[in-house]
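User: I'm putting together a small comparison set for a docking exercise, and I want a reference complex before I start. The sequence is below, and the ligand is cytidine-5'-triphosphate. Could you produce the 3D structure with the ligand included, as structure tokens?
Assistant: Of course. I'll restate your input first, then give the structure tokens for the complex.
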Amino acid sequence: LIGLYGNELGINVYVVGGFVRDLLLAIRSKLNGAKKSIPYDIDVVVEGDGLLFGKYVAKQLRAKYVEHPKFHTCSIFYRNGENKIIRIDIATARTEYYEEAGELPKVELSTIKKDLYRRDFSINAMAIKLNSGSFGMLLDFFNCRKDLEEGRIRILYPLSFIEDPTRILRAIRFEQRFGFEIEPNTLSKLEEAVANGYLEKVTGMRIREELEKILEEPEPMKAIKRMGKMKIIFHLFERTYYSPTMEKDLEKLFDVKNYFKNNLSNYLNKVRLFHLVLYVLLQYTPEESLKKITARYGLPKDFIKNLMQVKNVYNEISNELKNKEKISKLSYYYEKTNGFQNEQLIFLAVKLPEELLGKYYEYLRKIEKLKLSITGEDLLKKGYEGVQIKTKLEEIKKKLLNGEIQPGEEKYLI
Ligand code: CTP
């Protein structure tokens, strides 16, 4: 239909980028017998006025229309027959040029070939024409399909990473997602851009977006390992050295998070994987650098304080490991983590020695369900005052946790 509207307005319309890549991959895997779904986010480029075209299409389809005038693009949200929302982003064919490395692109009008040439990698630089008459025609100006078939990530022009250093992270994401290889010349350009500090020139928000996309991949660890080895982590987070200990902690983080998902899912409320990963990566980073990093990536105000709290608790626990009796009581974990946020509780699980993990999970399960049958009000009536009330309630909670009293017996302690 979109192509038909193009004909009605007399402009060329193409679907481009990730959609074409995934379509060709899906066709290939279908031929191999595998099932792969085709995505519902579609990038469309027109040779003509993208905004005018978008408005026209939205009207014809009775779809929602949103304009992004700064980038000269618009989006249409359309509910298809299967009741799925399809997002169609429409842009005018453009040669993007960047005034300075790391900045968002300025836009200048041009044609489809130039538009494709300015894109990140060959696998993302194909288009399919949608106009009726030539519907389905694949435009492949730069041997892209061959790269896709042979599993190669290749930039199309030498300054690609310099103009947009977020592509460094994208290269790794696609490489790991598809099990492709970054072609040697592209790899050397990528490494050069990293070593020359181009990642540092990008705003924290744009880097963060790319990192979050990596974390949404099915196996983010692969890309993280690669970024660690290539010193990308070091260039993203100053004075942060990726080490084997960190790698083990990260692997454990994904296991722990899985455990929480299956067994303690309430603790995942308000938890962001991005924060958890940064707790692990930044656990040895000096404090002055942490201040800059938290500001750069828009981390919560209390991020450093929370990280330090967990580190302190972890150190205390490490020193008390010999005291078997103490660490075997559930109240011990209450004392250590009372007031912790969920992200801190999960990070502590990553740091705890394996032998304590069972107890710790048992504690989390129990405290989650723990309800006292008396309240502060009851204590007030009995003559307790101020901080005494809080202390008494905590004492009772600990006794319940340890099984020293049973639920319902709280009243005998006041
Ligand atoms: N693109 C680019 N440079 C970037 C980001 C995007 O050239 N830094 C181009 C690529 O052609 C890409 C398209 O814009 O295919 C759309 O980008 P995006 O939606 O981020 O990625 P997809 O390729 O659709 O990948 P994904 O499957 O991760 O959504």
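The two ends are 75 Å apart (CA to CA). Residues 17-18, 43, 119-120, 124, 164, 166-167, 170 surround cytidine-5'-triphosphate (CB under 6 Å).
User: Thanks, that's exactly what I needed.
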